[in-house]
Amino acid sequence: MIKKIVTISLLTLPYLLGAQGFQVNLQGQVQQGMAGAGTGLIQDGAAVFFNPGGVTFLKENSISAGVTATIANGEYVDAPSGTVSRTNNPISTPFTGYAVFGSKDSSNFFSKFKFGLGVYTPFGSTARWEDGWTGRFALTSLKLQSIFFQPTVSYKICNKLGFGAGLVYGYGNVELKQDIPLYSNTSTNGGYGSADLKGTAGGWGYNLGLYYTPTEKLSIGLTYRSQVNMSLTNGTANFTVPASVASNFPSGPFSSSIPLPQVVTLGFGYKMNTKLSLALDVNYIGWKAFDTLAFDYKNNTPVLKDTKLPRDYHNTFAFRLGGQYHITEKFTVRAGVALSLTPINSGYVTPEVPDANKVNLTCGVGYKISNKFRIDASYTFENLERKDNNINLQLNGTYKTYLSAPGLSLTYKF
Questions:
Q1: 248: part of which helix (H) or strand (E)?
Q2: What pTM was computed for the model?
Q3: Fewest 10 Å CB contacts: which of 54, 97, 186, 344?
Q4: Closest of 232, 188, 229 to residue 206, by C-alpha
Q5: pLDDT at 4 over 50
Q6: What's the confidence (pLDDT) of residue 233?
Q7: Which range among 137-146, 205-214, 216-225 shows the weakest confidence by mean pLDDT?
Q8: What b/e sequence results for 152-179 when a residue is b if at least 16 CB atoms lie within 10 Å of its CB, and e otherwise?
Q9: 3-state class percentages of the chain: helix first, strand second, coil last, to nearest 5
Q10: 24 pLDDT exceeds 80?
Q11: How far apart are CA 400 and CA 357, in angstroms?
């Protein structure tokens, strides 16, 4: 009986990644204020991420840095008992840094080129559930961080068309903790055992983009961000269990491969007049890459086995519509709305990713301090609810998540 219970518990460990909940759409304050739309409307150095093909259309060189304080908390209402459990998450701070430079001499052949560097956090999450909560054997806490580095080259093929490409290296670390349903008066953690998995991972990918301006008012962008397979080869699994079963849970190394999905985006920008601009992005996100997620433990036992857990995720869409209005030459206001469709089917929702179809509301402002300096700020609000009966974790209830994300960036142009 103990073997069966513990094996089921350990099979839940691979549920540490996936779904829109881990995709951090906070790659530029200007774009965040417009619901994350920036593929078809090029405005600043964040084009390194949103559309490398449009980088060459930027008139000035620039350096920018930004950060967003992500405040996310939620609760779980257990259907059978009515028990309410809550998270106590720390504030996360996804950040961005962009540099764009190139020749301003139009007679120079290299004036058609722009070079860029982006450092940003496209995936990440922090979840910390209160002690003794209903789903403690699935998760007690999770910390996932990733940083992508992207050197980029952009080339203006003609006055209306640009192409760009960026090489991406992703680096990340993860730590997951859960309780193990083995009770003993002498064990730690309130009488139950615990598992702590942590490690670092890395992988390569690329970012391609086309940017086309058929008229002075209309612009169109098409981008492809490749899948990045994050290989985790140096993970460490630590188990705290009663002494009578300690031999079944040897602490030691483990490995895994975590696919971060490809994204295809078609974007449109339209300048209604000199003051008002609109942007629309449609993302197609390849979450189907999560068909299976496997953990390979170096020290196997009859209880601690390598795990291959099927996932029932599917590719999905997100739609982002935003606008900005220049009140004066120096002051700009922005607003947007985004609809993200969840890739998680019923029966597979987990405490790590209590995801649902969701609507994000955003707003933002920009202020031109001088000809060289600009400051931008944004705010994102999200409120979602998902009922589910997980077929693996035996968690039947309702998840509610509330997210508030104010952000700020400073840009220097030269």
A1: none
A2: 0.89
A3: 186
A4: 229
A5: no
A6: 84
A7: 137-146
A8: bbbbbeeeebbbbbbebebebebbbbbb
A9: 10, 55, 35
A10: no
A11: 12
